[in-house]
Amino acid sequence: DSVRERERLWTDKEGNGEAFEFFKKTAFEKMKILKIPFTFENPELAEQSLLGRQRIAHLNHIYNLVKVMQNFCDQFGILVDFEHYIHNSLDPDDEIRFCVPDVGKFVSAVHLYSPTPLHRPMPIEVGSEDQRHIYGWLFNLKQKGFEEGILIFERGGGQNPGEYIKTSIYAIRLMVEQL
User: How much is the pTM?
Assistant: First the structure.
């Protein structure tokens, strides 16, 4: 529906000025009309000189930002990347544990892959320690209200997709079934 609405407003074939009126609207008004989701992801570690200086790295901070943005438009959400927390020397367990009780309601997507110190997404093996950690983080988010969202399996470039997909997708499905 929103794709057709976008196309209609973009082209305005009838020439009735509706497209012109649309382009005069604020970004928030356009997002509401077109139902465009916008997520804030916790940042990846930047340069060593910036270690600990990123202003919006903690889940609580992103939650507060999204909560305020939702006063203008409810299309804002949180995208959680557990490996990014680890790279920033933040414990994903603590980020979730010490966050507000309803943070999960604002999570719209999660990047899933076995976290490594080199930011090279690795497959999730069934029964592995990594699968146990990821499941625990998802379970903790569920305890804080995460009921529906997109689970994105992220893999690094240059690898054979068959190696990653055959075990990782199955491991993710098993986690979802148990949640």
Answer: 0.80
Describe the chain by its helix, strand, coil percentages, rounded to 5.
50, 10, 40
- Going from the C-alpha of 169 to that of each of 67, 94, 134, 178, the distances in angstroms are 32, 27, 13, 14
Burial group, residue 69, by CB count within 10 angstroms (0-12, 13-18, 19+): middle
Bridge-based pairing state of the strands 150-153 and 107-112: parallel
At 94, give phi and psi (nearest 5°).
Answer: -70, -40
Answer whether 28's CB lies under 8 Å from 73's CB: yes
How far apart CA 72 and CA 98 sit, in angstroms, is 26
* Average pLDDT along the chain: 83
* Cα atoms in the 13 Å half-sphere on the side-chain side of 110: 26
- Where b means 16+ CB within 10 Å and e means fewer, 82-108 reads bbbbbbbebebeebbeebeeebbbbbb
Residue 146 has pLDDT above 80, yes or no: yes
| Separation CA 159–CA 56 (nearest Å) | 31
- Mean pLDDT of all residues in 4-11: 65
The pair of three-digit structure tokens given for residue 127, joined into one six-digit string: 């029964």
What tokens does 117 get?
């110190």
